Amino acid sequence: MSTTASPVQQRVELDAIVIGAGFSGMYQLLSLRDKLGMKVKVLEAGDGVGGTWYWNRYPGARCDSESHSYMFYFSKEMVNEWTWTERYPQQPEILRYLNHVADRFELRRDIQLNTRVDSASYDQASQRWHVRTQDGQHFVAQFLITGVGCLSTANVPNIPGLNDFKGQWIHTGQWPHGGVDFSGKRVGVIGTGSTGIQTIPVVAAQAQHLTVFQRTANYSIPARNAPLSDAFKRYAKEHAEGIRYIMNTNTNAHPFRMVERSVLATHPAEREAIMEAAWIKGGLEFRAAFKDTLADAQANKVVADFIRKKIHQVVKDPAVAHLLSDIDHPFAAKRPPVDSNYFETFNRDNVSLVNIRATPIERITAEGIQTQDQVYPLDIIIFATGFDAMTGSLLKIDIQGRDGVKLKDSWAAGPINYLGLQVPGFPNMFTITGPGSPSVLCNLPPAIEQHVDWITDCIRTLRDTGVSTIEATEPASQSWCEEVNRAANASLLGQVKHSWYLGANVPGKPQVFMPYAGGFGKYSEICREVAADNYRGFALGA
Questions:
Q1: pLDDT tier at 5 (50, 70, 90 boundaries)?
Q2: Around Cβ 126, how many Cβ atoms within 10 Å?
Q3: Exposure check for the chain: N or C terminus, fewer CB within 10 A?
Q4: What are the beta bridge partners of residue 188?
Q5: If residue 30 lies in a helix (H) or strand (E), which one and from where to where?
Q6: Which runs of consecutive H residues, i.e. helices, occur in 216-363?
Q7: Beta partners for 439?
Q8: What's the CATH fold of domain 12-49+107-153+389-536?
């Protein structure tokens, strides 16, 4: 079993320290400990494993990757022994799966819970990382690997008067583990991104009244979630290798490929039928119906207009339908959610929609939310306002590299790194699915497996060849950042300037496109080529 740290301990010498016990941290522990025989410790702030799925317990929390793809594939035995129940698994089921992983591979003995990392500093003389926790512990290791997650630092907006509110306020990423009772309550939800779209239907079914405060209208595709049939469960296990191959070689690491056809080259009647069939099937595969949806503005408009038409068909009140479909960005240029009865929820008598783009929130009062033209009395406020994505969780830790350079200073103008794996000036520190990797633009478990396998092979090579340090070079990192920008600007992704892909949801954060949009399959091939070429772009030290 994992142990909770005592207040003060002598320093602990290790081969590697991993921060975070989610998908990334657990697989990295398994790989370094069991494949390389290294002495490894995972430090986890929570009192359980699971990472994102430990913390995110808000109503409706559900994965938007299909269950048979949202799992590890490194172990054939585990693929065969684990069976999902739904097409899109809910948070409790995903957390059960991750606990199963921890138990099956006896990972808990090397995971230390209730341990929040406060700082990490690199000592150049000894070539070791010194990691200190908030409760005074001191760990020393040759390698530091961060598995802190891309979406794990809650972004609570700085709205005046929040401390005056007499009711309860909650961020979806910091949900009470005991849950929240909405019965008989007047509830306000701020935010209509992916989290809000999942939360709103569930809260509406319980609350006396729900007021949704929408600044930015969003596209959403129906999930068509349902229990998995026995036939599909058998299919997923029997075709596991093929499914894994598709995920590892395509654009978004999902278990389907982009169809090689053009929106504009397809006859209008045929493309309407294609979109209708994809809408009925539901899920993220809708965006894969055509190859040029994100490449051509005119093609995107055809698909976007189809979704807008669907919103008007679902939502009965034309004024509400107009607000929900008045979307200011191309389809899939921001994260495209999938939903369970999101637009249908606005047909309920106990749900109202407030357009805070037209009448912004001015402050939170003791009684509720005050916009420019009205006060909305509330008992509970839910912030579905997302996360300080990709960099927030890293920058919360005081990380200092060579010569005492702080990561927050190195990234003052935006994250500079190489392949999303290493930062120049920070030897032997690896970032799993960091900025500069495909990360949030793809299904994460295959991306995590790819990252962890690459890092593990790299450390194995260093040990086998007697090399003690590896560090991304400045020229390679600058060149890679240019490639990340080029890939984003080659699609419609680069045209949206108010996306959390750029950090635009966090005031004061430098707006730099962070994930690599060139495709997961292409990225994986680049990583293989770099390693095969004696880790081109990295400096290797004795």
A1: very low
A2: 10
A3: N
A4: 211, 381
A5: helix 23-30
A6: 230-238, 240-249, 268-281, 297-314, 318-325, 342-345
A7: none
A8: FAD/NAD(P)-binding domain (3.50.50)
Q: Are 480 and 515 in contact (CB under 8 A)?
A: no
Q: ∠ CA 406-411-415 to the nearest 5 degrees?
A: 135
DSSP H/E element including 267 = none
Structure-token pair, residue 520: 């997961």
Q: What is the dihedral of CA 239, 242, 247, 248, to 10 degrees?
A: 140
The secondary structure element, H or E, covering residue 221 is strand 221-222
Q: What does pLDDT average to over the chain?
A: 92
CB 375 within 8 A of CB 368: yes
Quick one: average pLDDT of 456-479?
A: 97
Q: What is the largest CA-CA distance in the chain?
A: 72
Q: Tokens at residue 496, please?
A: 């949206």
Q: Are 513 and 502 in contact (CB under 8 A)?
A: yes
Alpha-carbon distance 234 to 97, whole Å?
18
Contact 170, 380 (CB under 8 A): yes
| Cβ pair 139, 15 in contact under 8 A | no
Q: At which residue do the structure tokens 């008045």 appear? A: 326
Contacts for 421 with CB less than 8 Å, ≥ 6 apart:
430, 431, 434, 436, 437, 451, 454, 455, 472, 527
pTM beyond cutoff 0.90: yes
In the chain, where are the structural domains located? 12-49+107-153+389-536
Strand bridging mode 398-400 / 117-123: parallel
